Amino acid sequence: MAHVVFYAPCIPGNSGAAIRLAALTGAMLHLVEPLGFDMDEAKLRRAGLDYHDLAHVAVQPDLDAALDAARAHAPSSRVLAFTGSGDVTLDDVDLALGDVLLFGPEPTGLPEEVLADPRVDARVRIPMRPGLRSLNLANAATIAVYELWRRHGYVGGV
Length: 158
Prior knowledge:
- By secondary structure, the protein is of the alpha/beta class.
- It is 32% helix and 20% strand.
- The chain has helices at 12-25, 42-48, 63-73, 112-115, 137-151; strands at residues 3-7, 28-32, 56-60, 79-82, 88-89, 100-103, 120-125.
- Helix 1 links the parallel strand 1 (3-7) and strand 2.
- Helix 1 runs parallel beside helix 2.
- The longest helix has 15 residues, at 137-151.
- It is globular.
- The chain starts with a strand and ends in a 7-residue tail after the last helix.
């Protein structure tokens, strides 16, 4: 469906919620090291509830490995980097099945060297009221995944 990449996530609850999101939508979740938590951490397990065994999750040693893994499944996928300073808003992006939705760590977001990576096809912003900094990581990923899924008729869903 889609590849969600959390680059160096710090908060276990957000990654746990993303595990649940992956299970519910069929998205593949890639967690890029270093992780700010242990994969056995109670907060991660609690946020993911009993969906851990139903989700497709891979811990990747670096961004290269995550993008290589995603593109092995969908060679023509685009990398969409989500950032509060994005050039284009989510509603203006042509979301395709297999796209890579890349999100940065809490609380800093994606570092400039990741945003400048030549594999990044677009810097995407989720609209919000002026003067506010950012959405919660898990919430931003959920908005993006469900928007992609909605545009494709919730393929594979009920």
